[in-house]
Design brief:
Oligomer: single chain
Shape: elongated
Helix content: over 70%
Order of helices and strands: HHH
Number of strands: 0
Largest sheet: none
Radius of gyration: 19 Å
Structural class: mainly alpha
């Protein structure tokens, strides 16, 4: 099972009661929103890594 499938399975297990009352379009919308959030968080993580790498590079050049 892929990471995405495991992720969706965990979400479905945690929110099973909520999803029982939702249409498939609502569930799809929620999954798209979660994916976008995950993408944004990953982008922020990459930016942070880049900032830290620049600090290290600057320190190494000063030495």
């Amino acid at each position: 099972m892929s990471d995405v499938e495991n992720y969706v399975k965990r979400i479905m297990e945690r929110f099973e009661d909520y999803f029982k009352n939702c249409s498939s379009i609502e569930i799809l919308g929620l999954l798209i929103a979660l994916h976008k959030l995950q993408s944004k968080l990953f982008d922020l993580f990459l930016v942070r890594i880049g900032v830290e790498a620049q600090k290290i590079q600057k320190r190494n050049m000063e030495q």
